[in-house]
Amino acid sequence: MRLALFADIHANRQAFAACLDAARARGAERLICLGDIVGYGADPEWAVDTVVDLVAKGAVAVRGNHDNAIGVPSDSMNADAQAAIDWTRSRLSGEQKAFLAGLPIMREEDNRLYVHSEASAPAKWRYVRDTSDAARSMMATVLQITFCGHIHRPGLYSMSSTAKMTSFVPTSGVAVQLLTGRRWLAVLGSVGQPRDGDPAASFAMFDTASREITYHRVPYDVATAAARIKAGGLPVWLADRLSLGR
């Protein structure tokens, strides 16, 4: 089965729509959303409704920290992020809020784990920044492959049978086989707010038969996404950063 994996949509309609189109054009058979459907962007209602529809059709979705903050106030967000959460909360219906609150924090499927942040303490929303963070997450599950997001930058980590760690930044469009002799942690880039210097939206495809993962970048209408943020009265930096990829 060909899986399409998306993380950190952040209510960016233009970016998510472009990624969905690109994934379907590449033969995606099942869609996986790794959390943070809302936050930062100007179209939370559309984003939630889209994921609700996808889940009804067989997609998997887990809860991210921004999704969580809609129902459970966070004391760890910066001022711009908190302003966006407060604004988003005022826009969502009771049914949309209930959907976000009801999302699982992790989901297991075959030999794969789906989680927004990392597996050792998923509700603490830790970032996977380096091999030590990745190792902590991998050691917390018996499953061979973990897919996560949260940090908004693509990365791929592996652990050998002797616990030796490797890591690298995957190249867009180049397939990497996740060999069975190692354990893997695939960190997705962000659909709606990339932070690796490339403004193009990010998602990945994984073939469960060949065990190949391919990261993709998708240009989208950044100007419209930014204009909608400004028109909505959200912090201007949330619009300006989209064109910078940071």
TrEMBL record:
GO terms for molecular function: phosphatase activity. InterPro entries: Ap4A_hydrolase, Calcineurin-like_PHP_lpxH, Metallo-depent_PP-like, Pesterase_MJ0912. Belongs to the metallophosphoesterase superfamily. YfcE family. PANTHER family: BLL5683 PROTEIN, METALLOPHOSPHOESTERASE. This is Metallophosphoesterase family protein. Residues 1-210 form the Calcineurin-like phosphoesterase domain. GO terms for cellular component: cytoplasm. CDD domains: MPP_superfamily (cd00838).
